[in-house]
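ingest -> validate -> predict -> emit
validate: passed (alphabet ok, no gaps, 126 aa)
predict: started
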Amino acid sequence: MRSIAIILVSFLLLVSLSWTSHAYIDSVGAQLNEQAQALEALLQDEQWERAEQSLRAFRAYWSAHKGKLTVLLDHQDMNDFEAVLVRLESYSQNRAAQFCLTEAVMLQRWIENLRERERFNLSNIF
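emit:
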């Protein structure tokens, strides 16, 4: 009887931790996606100074949450995201509009893909 209770408590703990990590990833992803969309709009209008400020705010938000996300996400995904972000910063400094827009869209797609992969649904289980 005691082993069943231990198994049940362990299962409930695992489910609650999983739910909490999913909620955190979804929350951070939503905020990052919102900031990336605002950044893309600034880049389309070629408002370079405001875009660079927005990019710095994006980087600061990312840096604040990166430590926790490193534990929850795949290491390769984190590296890919960092690479896109570094390219976007470089293109922004050089005022390369088309490259900036491409990287901003890549950033948004990465975030959307991340949020989709971390959702609880049958396609992610099987």
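Residues 39 and 108 are 10 Å apart (CA to CA).
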